[in-house]
Amino acid sequence: MPAADAPPVAPDQQQPARVLTFEAGDHHNVDLLGGKGAGLVRMTAAGLPVPPGFIITTEVCRERQREGRLPSDLLDEIARYMRVLEGRTGRGFGHGPAPLLVSVRSGAPVSMPGMMETILNLGLNAQTAEALARETGDPLFSATVFVRFMRMYGEIVLGATGEAVDRAAAPLLATLRDRPDAVSMRALSDACQAALREDCGDEVPADAFEQVAGAIGAVFDSWNSRRAITYRNFHGIAHDLGTAVVVQAMVFGNLGTPSGTGVAFSRDPLSGEPTLFGEFLEGGQGEDVVAGTLTPQKIAQAAARFPELFAEFEGVARRLEELYRDVVDIEFTVERGKLFILQVRSAKRTAQAALRIAADFLTEMRLSEADALRSVTLAQVRQVGRPGFEPAAVARAKSEGRLLGSGIGASPGQVSGRVALDPDRAEAAAKGSNGAGSIILVRPTTSPHDLHGMIAARGILTSLGGATSHAAVVARALNKACVVGCDRLTIDAEKRRFRLDQTWFDEGDEISIDGATGELFAGALPVVPGGASTPQIEALLAVADRLARCRIFARVATTAQIATALACGATGVAIRLGDVLTTSGKLGEFIDAALAQREGSSAVVQMAQTLADLLAPLLAASGHADFALRAVDLATGEATELLRTVDLFAREPRLALPLGVPELIEVQVRAMALAIERAGYGGSAQFIVRHINDPSEMRELRRIASAASGSGRAAIAAGATMTSVHGALLASEIGRHADVLWLEARSLIANAHGYPSTLMLTADPLDDYLRRGLLSADPRTTLDESMTRLFLSVAGAAVSNPECRIGIRLSGQLSEQMVATLFRSGFRSFIVDPDEVRVARVALGREAAAMNPANG
Amino acid sequence: MSADVSDEKTYAVLTAILLKKVSDASALSEATGLPLDDTGRILGELEKRQAVFSMNSSVMATESGTALVKEIAARNYGELRGDPELERWHARFEPLNRQFLSAVTAWQTVDVGGTKLSNDHSDSEYDDKVRSRLDGLVNKMSHLLEEIGAKVPRLLRYRDRLNGALDKSYAGDSRFISDVRVDSLHTVWFEMHEDVLLVLGKERTDAGG
After folding, report:
1. Paired sense of beta strands A244-249 and A53-56, if any
2. Which residue out of B99, B108, B129 would a mutagenesis test of the A interface target, given it has the greatest number of A Cβ atoms within 10 Å?
């Protein structure tokens, strides 16, 4: 800034400054400048073209709170700074011929609700509006800006209802639209002021400085609004933190050529591609887009028209990315060929884009490995892996004419299901036992009466309503796929059928909907696990793997799931033999054999071939990946009902203990060995038994396993899953006899709390408990002191037995906090659900990077 | 005393059951603002008249209960229905309703380059703005409810419930904005909308709602 512009008073070191220009502030001092102010200071310091302005610091807010009024000399100070602005812009505040207009915004050090946001166009009154009309040659523009100012000032500072000004101004603006000279700004001002006096008994001060003082007062008042106070109390934010106020020169996109206004992302926020993405409205202001009076063009088109301007913009966008170390969205205005950056924020983006951008930033060396991994959320990783229609099947359906049409995609998700036209029947059908399950509720519109049906359905389709209809709002709250406003759909409720154009569908017919595109298809479409991966995503995941060096097992039951899990980067698979038996319908046979054992039957021994037949394809599908097989668990009932466990124990009480019937263990290991031979499996296999409680029990398990696995290629490691407090506390001793120890997080936590394991799966009861303060930490996501002690006891087994690997089974969606704690405790093997494999890779990589700053 | 179902309290309970589809005494007491004892007594009477039936502790309206609500509404509010003042009230409510739905949509989704994404609530500045918007709308709605409350005092309860939901959301439980499983702003607003339609004898148009 030229020395001549320097404000007369230099900021005192002892006394925090009251007012600072964007050039004078230190952007690290967010507490003094507020978030918005600090951002502007930072951009100014980086040489970016920001409209000039100054900041009234939080110090003034505190002073006002202490004294109960604005410091008496503040207005003089502001007047001095305003003169600086006048010099910078060549315009005059409160007078013509080129009036300077400013915006006033609040800017607290932290964002909070209830704060006044923005008043635009201060400095306007009847005379300056007239001057602006003359200067621009556009009275309608000047009038619109003037009305907008009075509406905002009236509403925010005077507490009037905004409509009052609008109502008064509407006929005058309409006249101006036809006859630009028909209405004077004085007449416009009088009409609006009269409406304000009528509405709230007060009017907008004509004096420009009084306007600024009023707006500053309103910002400080909003700091003490009831909502803001409640919010600060709740979040433990100090009440004397205070807010700053930003005063900034307005620039206009409709003054001269080239001019205009636009919004652009520094990269495509949908795909993540490194190209500018956005729109430019030539010769217009932001509100012209809303009003639809002008049509914006794509940035690429605009760049072709104004190559120099957009080359500059491209440079600014790159510079901003460096500054923010992130993709940004930029509001900008061009006034007479000069580019101004109005607002910059970290860009929102799709999950796909987030991963792509993280990977690209890593290759472009804009981010370290640790920061690149940190720049994506686990939810985004999860979202990218969300299941969807098989792309080939969608293409086929389209070529076969099964695309029925489209509505408005209101809540994303691709689902197929049978149609129900009534919420009660949807609920009944979804609960139905005949393999029904997936239901799509089809309604003209939905009301609160439909809620139970919407909850039961997988997807919702309505013929009426828009993206903000009840159906859309509720579907999003429920995270269900939803298409609304499909106006070609007619429902015949009586005959329980509906029509799309000429095609009739009966209730119970299958359809498919895409809640993102709004498309509808006849019939079901096959769904594939998501994760259309890209080289960029793979590169990012590879970094995570390299940092974390963990083994990640996916819990699977079929060969198809194995293929998917390995494609998602699982290093191993974990299979419960009980699941395999259940899905193949052989569980009954196995149980009968187990019971017959008592009578000296050799039925169990003969099961070996049957089991091997089931296991061989799974082993073959696993290639060289680790393969953990968990023994059938008859002791507790993950499938209690199916197994009629009580009945079982009455007949053979020994089944309640892990090694109660050793022949059962033997046959499972032998079958595994046979299957390994047959499949030519080349990885590392392990056999795991649940509920092991004692070192000698483990020693016996290892003896049985090693005897049964024979001497072939099949070296089968023997291990145990810790589910009890007793087992966990003795883990070091048990580990002495084990090749591998797994800790089953959910079971152990539930058992330690004395809760049924299923309780950990349901959200409501525990959520409610936590809210009522009856549990100090959420056992599903946080390890409190007692749980940490148990988990550390199991982790400690690795220290005392370096030969023994220690792993943990995490069910459901991974909690970042839990993964971090476990990784820090030394766990390096994880069994997770297949959907969570990529999530686990990122979460672990991130934690590894955090633990070792050398990676950062 | 035989149940006079046309009295305001009984009507309030029966409407609340209808709007909630499945409910229980304590939720109904919360929704109507009536003491739990009164709610229980009224439920007993309604059950005797077979307007509702209960299973375990849940209550639901029967078909005759549903018909009864419309019938009583027509009788009790019949006079109001032609009232031009109420028509004007409704004309002011409709745009507010659309703004409300659009604000809730903004809470749930963010616009990214023309595509709507679910709001992952990672941007507190954005969320705070939307919350302020909702706050303003609840404020306006409260005024509207005070106006109609002069004629139908029962509806004033929605003002308290809306502000209650808002307070809870400010106190950090964001479910109280649009979660359908709790008495969120959206849940209460929709019950209110349905209730108002019943009073005015209008059908849901679903231009936006």
Report:
1. antiparallel
2. B108
- Spatial neighbors of A184 by CB under 8 A, at least 6 apart, are A126, A130
Structural domains counted in chain A: 4
**Last residue in a domain, options A179, A214, A249:** A249
Q: How confident is the model at residue A602 (pLDDT cuts 50, 70, 90)?
A: confident
What pLDDT digit, counting tens, does each position of B96-111 carry? 998 999 899 999 988 8
Query: How far apart are alpha carbons A457 and A475 in whole angstroms?
Result: 10
What distance in Å separates residue A736's CA from the closest CA in chain B?
46
* Distance of alpha carbon B174 from the chain centroid: 19
Does residue A324 lie in a domain region? yes
Cβ-defined contact of B120 to A235 (cutoff 8 Å): no
Helix (H, G, I), strand (E, B) or coil at B199: helix
**Bridge-based pairing state of the strands A685-690 and A626-630:** parallel
Interface test with B, best of A468, A486, A489, A767 (most B CBs within 10 A): A468
Q: Select the more confidently predicted residue: A754 or A116.
A: A754
Residues A513 and A563 grouped into a single domain: no
User: In this predicted model, what pLDDT tens digit does every residue of A479-513 receive, in sequence order?
Assistant: 889 999 888 889 998 999 998 888 899 999 999 99
Identify the CATH number of the domain in which residue A298 sits.
3.30.470.20
A503-506 β-sheet, strand order = A489-492, A497-500, A503-506
User: Are A314 and A395 found together in one domain?
Assistant: no
Long-range contacts made by residues B155-164, C-beta under 8 angstroms, separation at least 24? B155/B192, B155/B195, B155/B196, B155/B199, B157/B12, B157/B31, B157/B32, B157/B33, B158/B188, B158/B191, B158/B192, B158/B195, B160/B33, B161/B31, B161/B188, B161/B192, B162/B138, B162/B188, B162/B189, B162/B192, B163/B138
Domain boundary among A676, A695, A714: A695
- Statement to judge: residues A296 and A202 lie in one domain: no
Q: Which residues of A touch B186 (CB under 8 A)?
A: 473-474, 477
User: Which residues in chain B are contacts of A343 at CB distance < 8 A?
Assistant: none
- Of all residues in chain B, the one with the smallest CA distance to A476 is B108
Domain that holds residue A553: 549-695
- Chain A contact set for B102 (CB, 8 A): 468
Banded pLDDT at A711 (limits 50, 70, 90) = low
Asked if the Cβ–Cβ distance from B115 to A348 is below 8 Å, we say no
> What's the complex ipTM?
0.75
Q: Cα–Cα distances in Å, from A800 out to A693, A733, A791, A793, A794?
A: 18, 9, 15, 11, 10
A 10 A CB-CB count for A485 gives 23
Please judge whether A412 and B124 are an interchain contact, meaning their C-beta atoms are less than 8 angstroms apart. Answer: no
Show residues of chain A in contact with B105, CB under 8 Å: 467-468, 472-473, 476
Instruction: Answer yes or no: do A639 and A667 share one domain.
Output: yes
CA atoms lying within 13 Å on the CB side of residue A484: 23
User: Does A607 have pLDDT greater than 60?
Assistant: yes
Closest CB from B172, B173, B208 relative to A466:
B208
pLDDT tens-digit profile of B34-64? 998 989 899 998 988 888 888 877 888 888 8
CB-CB neighbors (< 8 A) of A409 in chain B: 116
In a domain, A798, yes or no: no
Strands (E), A446-586: 459-462, 481-484, 489-492, 497-500, 503-506, 510-514, 519-522, 527-528, 551-556, 572-576
Asked whether residue A668 falls in the same domain as residue A560, the answer is yes
Pairwise CA distance, residues A319 & A43, whole Å: 10
Q: Pairing between strand A489-492 and A481-484?
A: unpaired
What is the edge-to-edge ordering of all strands in the sheet holding A260-265? A297-298, A277-282, A260-265, A328-335, A338-346
Nearest to A460 by CA among A482, A427, A434: A482
Q: A689 and A587, same structural domain?
A: yes
